[in-house]
C-alpha cells in the first residue's frame, strides 16, 4: 500500500473540517475516498470531488473500499464504530473522547489489543502544540524537579444557549455522557495527565446546568492529589466571561506558567526542598531567574496527528497519540463528575463499572426534551483550544 484510503464517519463540524484538509493535500500519502453520515443527502457536493457518499457506517467499514476511518460522530458511537472498524481490520482514528465513559473506553482498547495489526489512534491535536511539548520536555528533563502543585483555571470555554440547542445529543446524559468535562475541556484533561501524570485521588464539585438549560455540568471546581503528595485545583466552565486560561505547575526547582500565549519558567537557583533543609536563615530564599520561553502555534495540528496516523499505517512509525492514551482524559472527566455526584473523594483508578451504572441512572432519570435549532458553524474553528 502506498496511499491510505480514508473514510470519515460523521460529517458534522469536525468531520467536515477533517475532509477539508484531507482534500487540500495537507496529509501526504492519504486520500479521502468516502464520507458517511446519517443524513447522506446533505453530502452531495462531495461526489464532484470524487468522494463516495455512504449512509451506513457498518457498510462502509465492511466495503473493502477504505483502509482507515475517522470516527467523528457523537461520543457513544465512538466505541461501537471503533470496535466495528478494528474487528473488520480497518485502521481507526477516533475523535476525542475515545468513548463516553471509562468502561466503554476499556472495551474499545481491549478490541484494539486483540487486533495489534490495526492502528488505533486518538485525535488529541493539542499534543502537537509546541507550548505543551516544551512544558513536557522541561518536566521530563528534570528541570522542574518534583511537581508539588498544579493549578489550571480553564474557564475560557464560553458557550451560548444556541450552541447547546444546535445538536440533540449535546449536553445530555444519553447523547454526550456529560458536559464541559467530557467535551470542551477534555483536551486540557489530556494535557493535565500527559504532563503531570494521573492523580491518586480526586474530589469534584460540579454544578449541573448552572448557566444553561442543560442537565449536565457546565461549571466545575476540582481538588486533585497525586501519589507523591502534589496537590492541584482544576477549574472549568462554559458560562464564564471573559474566562481565564492559566496553567501553573510548581516544582521543587521552579515554576511553569502558561497563560494564553505566554510561557514562562521561573527557576530556583537552589531547589526548594534542598533550601528548606539547609538554609540557616528563616526568611531567606534562593535567587530565581525568569525565562520567557518563545512559543508559536502549531500549523494545522489536526493534520499533524492525521499524518502520524497515516505514517504509522504505511511505515510502522509511532503514533503521535495512540488510542489507548485516550483513557486518561476520560477517567479524569468521569471521576471529577462521579466524585461530585456521590459527594465523596474518589481514589484512582476509579471503578468504571460503578460510574457506568451511575450514568445509566442519570439517563433513566433524564427529563430533558431538547429542541434542536440549527446555528451557523462558520466560526467553528474558533472552538479549537491551544
Ligand atoms: N478534535 C477536535 O478539535 C474536535 C472538535 C470538535 C468536535 N470534536 C469531537 O468530534 C465529535 C463530533 O463533534 P461535532 O461537533 O462534529 O458534532 P456534530 O453534531 O456537528 O456532528 C456529528 C455528526 O455525526 C453524524 N452521525 C451520528 N451518528 C452517526 C453514524 N452512526 N454514522 C454516521 N454519521 C453519524 C451526525 O449526523 C452529525 O452530522 C465529538 O466527539 C466531539 O467531541 C473534536
Structure keywords:
386 residues, 11 helices, 6-stranded parallel β-sheet, alpha/beta, Rossmann fold, Dihydrodipicolinate Reductase, domain 2, globular, 2 domains, binds nicotinamide-adenine-dinucleotide
Please specify the SSE layout and strand pairing.
Layout: E1 4-9, H1 13-23, E2 30-36, E3 52-54, H2 57-62, E4 68-71, H3 76-87, E5 91-95, H4 102-114, E6 120-123, H5 130-140, E7 147-154, H6 161-165, H7 186-196, E8 201-208, E9 217-225, E10 231-237, E11 245-251, E12 254-259, E13 262-268, H8 272-278, E14 288-293, H9 301-315, H10 327-342, E15 346-347, H11 352-364
Parallel strand pairs: 1-2, 1-4, 2-3, 4-5, 5-6, 7-10
Antiparallel strand pairs: 7-11, 8-9, 8-15, 9-10, 11-12, 12-13, 13-14
Helix pairs in contact: 3-4, 5-7, 7-10
The structure holds nicotinamide-adenine-dinucleotide.
Nicotinamide-adenine-dinucleotide is lined by residues 9-15, 36-39, 57, 72-75, 77, 95-96, 123, 125, 167, 183, 384.
Describe the structure.
The protein has 386 residues and is of the alpha/beta class. The protein has helices spanning 13-23, 57-62, 76-87, 102-114, 130-140, 161-165, 186-196, 272-278, 301-315, 327-342, 352-364; strands at residues 4-9, 30-36, 52-54, 68-71, 91-95, 120-123, 147-154, 201-208, 217-225, 231-237, 245-251, 254-259, 262-268, 288-293, 346-347. It has a nine-stranded mixed β-sheet. The mean pLDDT is 96. Residues 9-15, 36-39, 57, 72-75, 77, 95-96, 123, 125, 167, 183, 384 line the site of nicotinamide-adenine-dinucleotide (NAD).
Share in β-strands? 15-25%
Beginning-to-end CA distance, first to last residue: 34 Å
Q: Sum up the overall morphology in one term.
A: globular
What structural category do the secondary elements indicate? Answer: alpha/beta
- Ions, cofactors and other bound molecules: nicotinamide-adenine-dinucleotide
Order of helices and strands: EHEEHEHEHEHEHHEEEEEEHEHHEH
Number of strands: 15
**CATH homologous superfamily caption of the largest domain:** Dihydrodipicolinate Reductase, domain 2
Radius of gyration: 22 Å
Low-confidence spans: pLDDT under 50, at least 5 residues?
A: none
> How are the strands ordered across the major sheet?
14-13-12-11-7-10-9-8-15
Overall structural domain count: 2
- The second-level CATH architecture of the largest domain is 2-Layer Sandwich
Give a short account of the largest sheet: 9 strands, mixed
On the 0 to 100 scale, the average pLDDT is 96
Level-1 CATH class name of the largest domain:
Alpha Beta
CATH topology of the largest domain, what is it called? Dihydrodipicolinate Reductase, domain 2
Percent of residues in helices comes to 25-40%
Number of helices: 11
Amino acid at each position: 500500500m502506498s496511499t491510505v484510503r480514508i473514510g470519515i464517519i460523521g460529517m458534522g463540524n469536525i468531520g467536515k473540517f477533517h475532509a477539508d484538509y484531507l482534500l487540500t493535500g495537507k496529509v501526504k500519502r492519504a486520500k479521502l475516498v468516502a464520507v458517511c453520515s446519517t443524513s447522506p443527502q446533505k453530502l452531495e457536493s462531495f461526489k464532484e470531488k470524487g468522494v463516495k457518499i455512504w449512509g451506513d457506517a457498518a457498510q462502509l467499514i465492511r466495503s473493502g473500499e477504505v483502509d482507515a476511518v475517522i470516527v467523528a460522530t457523537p461520543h457513544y458511537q465512538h466505541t461501537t464504530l471503533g470496535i466495528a472498524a478494528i474487528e473488520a481490520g480497518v485502521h481507526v482514528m477516533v475523535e476525542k473522547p475515545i468513548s463516553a465513559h471509562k468502561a466503554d473506553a476499556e472495551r474499545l482498547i481491549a478490541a484494539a489489543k486483540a487486533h495489534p495489526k490495526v492502528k488505533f489512534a486518538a485525535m488529541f491535536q493539542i499534543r502537537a502544540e509546541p507550548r505543551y511539548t516544551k512544558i513536557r520536555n522541561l518536566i521530563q528533563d528534570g528541570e522542574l524537579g518534583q511537581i508539588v502543585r498544579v493549578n489550571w483555571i480553564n474557564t475560557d470555554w464560553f458557550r451560548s444557549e444556541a450552541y447547546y440547542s444546535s445538536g440533540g445529543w449535546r449536553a445530555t446524559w444519553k447523547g454526550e455522557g456529560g458536559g464541559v468535562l467530557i467535551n470542551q475541556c477534555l483536551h486540557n484533561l489530556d494535557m493535565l495527565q500527559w504532563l503531570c501524570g494521573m492523580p491518586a485521588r480526586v474530589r469534584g464539585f460540579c454544578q449541573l446546568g448552572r448557566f444553561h438549560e442543560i442537565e449536565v455540568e457546565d461549571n466545575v471546581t476540582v481538588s486533585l492529589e497525586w501519589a507523591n503528595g502534589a496537590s492541584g485545583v482544576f477549574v472549568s466552565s462554559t458560562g464564564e466571561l471573559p474566562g481565564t486560561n492559566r496553567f501553573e505547575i510548581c516544582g521543587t526547582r521552579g515554576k511553569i506558567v502558561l497563560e494564553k500565549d505566554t510561557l514562562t519558567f521561573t527557576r530556583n537557583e537552589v531547589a526548594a526542598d534542598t533550601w528548606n533543609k539547609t538554609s540557616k536563615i528563616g526568611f531567606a530564599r534562593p535567587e530565581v531567574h525568569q525565562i520567557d520561553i518563545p512559543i508559536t502555534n502549531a500549523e494545522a495540528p489536526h493534520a499533524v496527528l492525521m499524518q502520524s496516523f497515516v505514517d504509522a499505517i504505511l511505515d510502522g512509525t509511532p503514533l503521535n497519540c495512540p488510542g489507548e492514551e485516550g483513557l486518561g482524559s476520560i477517567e479524569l472527566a468521569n471521576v471529577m463528575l462521579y466524585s461530585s455526584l456521590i459527594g465523596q473523594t474518589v481514589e484512582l483508578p476509579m471503578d468504571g463499572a460503578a460510574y457506568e451504572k451511575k450514568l445509566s441512572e442519570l439517563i433513566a432519570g433524564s427529563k430533558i426534551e431538547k429542541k434542536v435549532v440549527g446555528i451557523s458553524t462558520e466560526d467553528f474553528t474558533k472552538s479549537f483550544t491551544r
